[in-house]
Design brief:
Radius of gyration: 17 Å
Largest sheet: 2 strands, antiparallel
Number of strands: 2
Shape: flat
Strand order of the largest sheet: 1-2
């Protein structure tokens, strides 16, 4: 997405507010490191790109995109309200406006946006 798109603003805002609050939102990028630090072995990391919405031409990715869109719409307030009002010291009204902007961006079929997703897993040594 371009620097001017709302998803970029959303990501920067989440990262900026969550890190100093001790709950970094970009934890997914460090999961393999955390597993190694916890002495897991045979660590596997898989990266995916999920569409946001049902715009993708591939039927499987279109279905994933629709489920991802529903997930984001259902959880955007849970993700953001506490972070914005407590860590960001925003008013509830300002937070609700920002959340509404995110909902509109998630619903925008012209955005053709993706979300990077990382899964990491390993095994505890015997």
């Amino acid at each position: 997405m371009t620097d001017s798109h709302f998803f970029t603003t959303w990501g920067r805002t989440f990262t900026t507010l969550s890190r100093p609050w001790g709950k970094p939102f970009d934890v997914y990028a460090h999961t393999s490191t955390y597993l190694r630090t916890a002495n897991f072995v045979e660590i596997q990391e898989k990266k995916f790109i999920w569409p946001i919405g049902n715009w993708h031409p591939d039927p499987k990715l279109r279905e994933i995109g629709l489920m991802n869109q529903v997930r984001l719409l259902d959880n955007v307030e849970a993700y953001g309200l506490r972070l914005f009002t407590q860590a960001g010291k925003w008013s509830r009204e300002r937070a609700q406006v920002f959340l509404a902007e995110m909902r509109m961006a998630v619903k925008d079929p012209k955005a053709k946006a993706y979300q990077e997703v990382t899964f990491a897993y390993g095994r505890k040594p015997k």
